[in-house]
Amino acid sequence: MINLISDTVTKPTPQMLDFMMKAEVGDDVFGQDPTINELESYVAEMFGKEKAIFCPSGTMTNQIAIKCHTQPLDEVICDHYSHVYQYETGGYAFNSGVAVNLIQGTNGKITAEQIEAAIKPVYDWLPISKLVVLENSCNKGGGSYYTLDEIRPITTLCKDRGLKLHLDGARLFNVLVETGENTVDIGNHFDSVSICISKGLGAPVGSLLIGDADLIKQARRYRKVMGGGMRQAGYLAAACLFALKNQRTRLKIDNDKAKEIGLLLEKQPYVKVVRPVKTNIVIFDLADGQKADPFLEKLKSKGILATAFGPETVRFVTHLDYTDEMHVEVMNVLKRM
């Protein structure tokens, strides 16, 4: 089967597995795993920050960031498509006791003007606006992304209004191969950054939260209480190191294949609309009242797996394990559907 359900379906390459098995490990809860320490230092330097912390998932890094930046009865401002709102089980309320203030952006992207209009006045009966979260790229927005030119006015607003700014950068490296921007410049605009290595980069497990030393010191306590102390996890950290050092530039291949799929779908009579394809995610609505589930069953019968993103909406995600031969087959199947 050709699996386009997500870029989380990737498996370690033989080279990555070999690198993992040679990792030197220790007990990370005591700060004694040398491979995790190396990964955290490498990523912190990459983004021009003081420290980083290795976690099992991007949901955990996002939730720790929210916890570090807020107090109960505060609120988080984000787009209504944001992963922290849509796909983290309401963790902002469960873990941090905060509300969300949702903005109707464009394909998951919000502007400084929209954020400013959303900031609440300080009254006893209102939550306190404290944290803004941007997602880059935005999953539910079809892989849309912010450029630094779009981020700068948001950073300025947050500093002027005393708000913290967090980046959910789960697929950030898919963005950077398109924009040519660098990680240090990204880091300079945010109080904290979350990156995920287990999507298109191909590691089996692993995300990191990046920030200043005080934030990461606090984050270590929250990681522990959330059950994220992983002991000899250096084998997993080694996979992340390998991915970051060897598999970043090839993400452009995934993005380009997604764009080719998007262009093909735009010409098909069974497709109503394709959201702009900017990175490695293709989201499209079916025409004439067709439902996603029967369409996905038909695709599955032809050897292709994808996922529903609404009653009449389908998502494809390209990734490391999606080969050139698979791409040719997918394109041919979509032409014949």
How would you classify the helix and strand content by structural class? Answer: alpha/beta
Indicate the proportion of strand residues.
Answer: 15-25%
Largest sheet composition: 7 strands, mixed
* C-alpha termini separation: 17 Å
Roughly how much helix do the residues carry, as a percent range?
40-55%
Give the SSE order as H and E letters.
EHHEHEHHEHEHEHHEEHHHEEHEEEH
Which runs of at least 5 residues are low in confidence (pLDDT < 50)?
Answer: none
Supply the CATH class of the largest domain.
Answer: Alpha Beta
Number of helices: 14
Q: Which SSEs are present, and which pair or pack?
A:
Blueprint: E1 2-3, H1 14-21, H2 34-46, E2 51-55, H3 58-69, E3 74-79, H4 83-86, H5 91-96, E4 99-103, H6 112-118, E5 128-135, H7 148-161, E6 164-169, H8 172-179, H9 183-188, E7 192-196, E8 207-211, H10 213-225, H11 234-246, H12 251-265, E9 271-274, E10 281-286, H13 292-301, E11 304-305, E12 307-310, E13 313-317, H14 324-336
Parallel strand pairs: 1-11, 3-4, 3-5, 5-6, 6-7
Antiparallel strand pairs: 2-8, 7-8, 9-10, 10-13, 12-13
Helix pairs in contact: 1-11, 2-11, 3-10, 6-7, 8-12, 12-14
